[in-house]
Design a protein that fits this description.
Helices cover 38% and strands 19% of the residues. It has 345 residues and is α+β, with helices and mostly antiparallel strands. A hairpin with a 2-residue loop joins strand 11 (277-278) and strand 12 (281-282). Helix 3 (35-68) runs antiparallel to helix 4. The two termini are 45 Å apart. The structure holds dinuclear copper ion (CUA). The site of dinuclear copper ion has 9 residues, from loops.
Length: 345
Amino acid sequence: MTKRFRRLLALTLSPAILAGLEERRVGNIFQTVATPGDAVRQSAILVLSIAAGIFLVVATVAAYAIFRFRRRPGDDLTEPPQVYGSTQIEIAWTVIPLLIVFVLIGVTARVVAGVQDHPIPKDAIHATVVGHQWWWEIRYPDYGFTTANELHVPVSEKPGETPTVLRLQSMDVIHSFWVPQLAGKTDVIPNRENVMWIDPRETGIYFGNCAEYCGTQHAGMLLKVIVHQKAEFEAWVASQQQVAAEDASAAAGRATFESLACVNCHAIRDTPAQAGHTGRGKFGPDLTHVASRLTLASGVITNTPEHLREWIRDPQVAKPGNFMPAMQLTEQQIKDVAAYLETLK
Ligand code: CUA
């Protein structure tokens, strides 16, 4: 067994990764619960039906030719008559595909324009989603806080009229924001802001992922949209605007955290950990309410105390290639820091 293979096997069997598998779910584009998603679903069904029709015609004709014209005992084996050119057939196989292509262009343009030109009401909720290698920074400029990887929105009571508007930016390379049950993919491009909106009409958790290859952990750049009842969403906003209450039992972990390089990348509001700004965003996820999130490492592992300790011990085990280094902490330091982060609810 090569060293590389053994390492791969160890990674594959690590409890962190096995626990994380549960999280790697992707929504179904045929079970949409938002207006842009519905439009994509309808056009997808149309395209699939046309493609299925073409497949049936081609497969039938091919099957007919295969069986009808096979060589049979007693056939004379000289070359059959060769027929060249048929204006009628050539016109047919040029015009019909052209018509099909124009129909598909028309349908696509209508869906894209319908979604992009949709009027955005003044009271819409705004979030800025910043793609990073390999996680999502989520800012709520109107509410004044930042979170990561889990986008919380209220359910749309009047679909189409009460959307959440998403401004998509990138910190580094091209990513793509995709939550199949809510909307089509929208690219997240450096030095450009793309705008999209969602209006989920059912509460629940919708799974998404980065849909543009962006490096080693592209597949580990998962995201969730958590759709709340309106009052529940407001309560969530209020709790995120607060900072977690001081907890005396976490003082040792807090001191350790603040004494280490953690603070260069991760912000915790109202503490000395303010994190280095790197232009459009922060280098690592804001941890002000890290304990309130469902997952760590952008959806790769569930957020349990055990996973948090494993993550701090060596982030490269659960998510090889990510930019958080193993900080070489002692077991006691790992325990303390994890205990501190657990208080950030
Ligand atoms: Cu980000 Cu793929």
